[in-house]
Structure formats: structure tokens, C-alpha cells
Amino acid sequence: MNIFGFKIKHVLTASLAVLSFGIVTSNAQADRLADVKKAGILHCGVVPGVPGYAFPNKEGKMVGFDVDLCRAIAAAVLGDANKIRTTKMKLPVAFNAMKAGTVDVVTHRFTWTFGRDVGQGLDFTRVMVFDGQGFMVRKKLGVKSGKELNGATFCLTTGATTESNVSDFFRTHGMKFKQVTFGSMGEAQKAYDQGRCDVFVTDKFGLGARRLAMTNPGDHIILPETISNEPISPMVPHGDQVWRDIVVWTLNSLITAEEYGITSKNIDKMRSSSTNPFIQRVLGKTGKFGGKIGLGKDWAYRAIKAVGNYGEIWENHLGKHGLGMPRGKNELYTNGGLLISPPFR
Questions:
Q1: Looking at the structure, do residues 123 and 272 belong to the same domain, yes or no?
Q2: DSSP notation for 233-277
Q3: Judging by DSSP bridges, how do beta strands 199-203 and 153-157 pair with one another?
Q4: Same domain assignment for residues 237 and 328
Q5: Residue 299 lies in a domain
Q6: Which end of the chain is more exposed for a tag (fewer CB within 10 A), N or C?
Q7: Do 320 and 239 fall within a single domain?
Q8: Which of 212, 228, 244 is the last residue of a domain?
Q9: Where are the beta strands (DSSP E) in the chain?
């Protein structure tokens, strides 16, 4: 039988082919979890050399906020927080690595923007740090505000949001600036430290970390202005919803743990004795949340036990035991901050 010149069997064949292609494509996009389990290792993109985020300790082991997030995901997926491999990343390399599938997740601090989220072959997951861009200058420059930097020379990074943010700030205040552009943040930092420019620019929490890596940290100050909104989020390859869910909800579990007072030290007691239904669900005592993302029932328990809750991670690396930086917007919503997790229901 013909319909508009086509035989029904041809239509059915074409429809089945399209359906079959969709199934194959879906399966191809959903292999990240299987690949990680098969390899027995989680490949994480970080930027080593940034104190507080990814920096070698006295024993030469990489530690920091970005590293602990990677370890939490490894604990959730593989049952062992030490089964990670960190790969050095700068901005263009990170995006290309996502597309090529050579890393499973980038936990370094890249800003979530429309231009990066759409059409780059990657997906941002959820905000792990709320930050904002600031300026670092030498004390001897004698300035107290970014509004006094008219005519200054900036060390900037190609492809980073810093360049457009500086341009917007100077245009808004009717000022001009000069720029020297580098291929990575590390190169820009080194050039600033060598005196090749007046101002070093990046997110404020990053400035606090990078100041410690200067030849003479006490010679530099961070100006008071915060000139942009920089929501920082881990990235995963585009098209694998299950893998994205794993990264999102591992981070959510760390935030939820802090909200309910679950720590790396009391987690076993909380798991065995708490009657709070939220705590029972997040620690796998009730509910079947792990099965919905291809993991065991104790996936979140393993992540929290391995690295602690969000607040513990912050204090160990960015707070009083690390860089000494206040949490600000990164406080829990119950303490006036922006940090909140959707409920485990």
C-alpha cells in the first residue's frame, strides 16, 4: 500500500532505523559510569599549583578543595577515594579534554557561563563555590580601589572570563587599561610576579590562594571591589545524564551532610542511630537512591566518610586550617548564605 508515494513497510523500516539509532546513541552517551567502573580509576581535571584547591603537600601528595571533590566522587562510584588520577588542565585544554573524553570530570574552578555551557560539548553540574572577580596589586602602587587603576597594565588569561569582566568594569567607569595576555592563569600569575604588569586578576578566592604562591606574598593586596558574579561548577562531558546526576548528587550529599550535622567523624554513629528520615535517606539506610544512578545504596555514605561534609572540606583547605578565607555566600542557606541542596526524597 502506498501513502503519498511511500510504501508502508518503507516507512516502518525507516522509523525502526531511527528508533534503533536513538537507542544506540543513548547507550553510547551513557557509558561514562561503566567506563569508570571498568577502568577502576576516576580521571579528574585540576589546575595543580593553586594552594587550597590543588597543591602538593609536604609529602608531594596533591591536596585541596578540587582534589577532595574528585575523591568524593571516586568514593561514591568506586568505593575508594584514592582511586583518582589528576590531570593538569588549563582553560582550552579542559574543554577539549571533555569533548575527547580523556577526563571524566573537571573539578577545577571554571565559571559557569552561557557561552561555555551551550555548544561546547560539556555540561556544568552545580555550583560548588560562589565567587566574584577581584584585583591584586602591589602595595607600593599605592591604590586603594579598582577605580584608581586608570591606565594600568593587566596580566590576563586568554579565554577566561576575566578579560571581558575587566573591559566591562573599565567601560562602566570611563577608564582605560592595557593588557598583556597569556595562555594560562599560571603564566599570567608568573608574569605579574615578575613585574611585567600592575594588576593580576582572577576570582577572589583564587586571588587569596595565588597570593601565597608569589615570591613575596606580603607585598601584595587584594582590592575591595568584587566586579562580577562567578558561579564555579564542576564540568562533565555533554550528553550523559546519569554521569552528570552522579556528580551533582555527590556534591549535594556533601552539602546535605553539613546541613544535618553529619561529619566524617560521626557518620557511623549517625547512620546506625539517627531516626531522622533525611539522614536515613542520604546515608542509604532507607530509600533506593543509589540504584537510580547506577550506584550502591551507601554511595553518599562513602563520599561523606572519605572527605567530610562541605564545611569540613572548606575549613580544611580554604578556611581556618587552610587559606583562612571567610565563606561569605558559601555559607549554608540556614546561616544566611546561598548554599542549599535539593532534598533527598
A1: yes
A2: --EEETT-HHHHHHHHHHHHHHHHHHHTT--TTTHHHHHHH---H
A3: parallel
A4: yes
A5: yes
A6: N
A7: yes
A8: 228
A9: 2-3, 6-7, 42-46, 55-56, 62-63, 84-88, 105-106, 122-124, 129-131, 133-138, 153-157, 178-182, 199-203, 220-222, 230-232, 235-237
Helix (H, G, I), strand (E, B) or coil at 154: strand
Domain span including residue 294: 32-130+232-335
Q: 241-259 and 310-317 helices cross at what angle (nearest 10)?
A: 80
Per-residue pLDDT of the chain (345 residues; tens, 9 = 90+): 443 343 433 433 444 333 333 433 333 345 899 999 999 999 999 887 778 888 888 888 889 999 999 999 999 999 999 999 998 777 667 777 777 878 999 987 788 989 888 877 789 999 999 999 999 999 999 999 999 999 999 999 887 788 889 999 999 999 999 999 998 888 999 999 999 999 999 888 888 888 888 999 999 999 999 999 889 999 998 889 999 999 999 999 999 999 999 999 999 999 999 999 999 999 999 999 999 999 999 999 999 999 999 999 999 999 999 888 889 999 999 999 999 999 999
Number of domains in the chain: 2
Do residue 148 and residue 297 come from a single domain?
A: no
- The cell for 86 is 589528576
**For residue 232, what is the DSSP state?**
E
Specify the 3-state DSSP secondary structure of 321. coil
The answer to whether position 20 is within a domain reads no
pTM equals: 0.82
Cell of 238: 555533554
- Dihedral angle, C-alpha 227, 228, 233, 239, nearest 10 °: -150
The answer on 237 and 202 residing in a single domain is no
Q: Are residues 48 and 115 in the same domain?
A: yes
Residue at 141 is within a domain:
yes
